[in-house]
């Protein structure tokens, strides 16, 4: 009954969904594209073979796409006879998926969780298996795949206490959904316990670790151009503020100004989380009286003896690892505002000391693990951020110790992929 009420309310919200797409498209035109796909109107590409086994992997946006990357490659290497469909919900996720996988997979937007949209999509794809990444739990998606005999795996599953509390408000719907999932590969014991508490079958839940620990650092150097070379050759110490959010850049600029008092040569690289904010963040830096360049247009040498460039805006997609490779210290964004922190494992895998704010719920367990190992420091505000960066700049030995500890944590936690591939083989 709850699922029917959920579906009814979702249908009523369609006009508001379309309005939201339109409003978001004003800043990010990608939201105007593939509207039909969001309602199940997916056109099969010419290379799709209906007779072949099909695995459908859903990863909502960039972070989930990155987490799914080793899984996709593992499946492709394991069985060339299986075709893979990767769906997402955001334009940035779509772009990242196409960059990472090219023509080796079939790309689509995920249909909204509407009965009609989903049944059209499932009938057209006829998948053998659906792999949902992390927390992409949608009642109708699970129901209609289950009723169509599609095997369902929740992979790299994570569930914060905050999210679990929300699911408890719809306990009957949540339990019914979880009971239809064939297997859950949880990141941690805490995630597994929360999912079982909500109704998942304990016999179908296994802790496998996080796919996000699998970071191919060699990918960073593949497409680096002369801009990265010029920055590297400048020899300047570099602080990166990665995946920053609205309301966070002002705090970072405040901290950076303080850091310049003791480290005048320090170069700040700011990489906003969302491409539609590149112009906004550039304007903010210029209005704050900093000398600013953009990665897409810069011709500067970045040598401190030349015209002093203080900030580089990373206005590009798919180059985060390359930006990290340049840095001495990494601040990971989404943490000085209440959005839960972005991926802290990328700088850890590259051997960079990590500083984050107090909002860490997206990576709570991993942040705790890195902090306990001495690879990560939590700051409460912009004043503490400035102080911590200054302390690290003045202490290269501390930088190296944090870097080594981060690398050690990453290396100890890279068994998630073989465990997940075994589960997929067992379920199929």
Gross morphology is globular
Structural class: alpha/beta
How helix-rich are the residues, as a percent range? 40-55%
Strands of the biggest beta sheet: in what spatial order?
3-2-1-4-5-6-7
Number of domains: 2
Can you count the helices? 18
Q: Please indicate the percent range of residues in DSSP E strands (runs of 2 or more).
A: 5-15%
CATH structural fold name of the largest domain: Rossmann fold
Cα radius of gyration in angstroms: 22 Å
Largest sheet: 7 strands, parallel
Report the count of strand segments. Answer: 14
Low-confidence stretches: none
CATH architecture identity of the largest domain: 3-Layer(aba) Sandwich
CATH homologous superfamily classification of the largest domain: 3-Deoxy-D-manno-octulosonic-acid transferase, N-terminal domain
Output the CATH class name of the largest domain: Alpha Beta
The N- to C-terminal Cα distance equals 30 Å
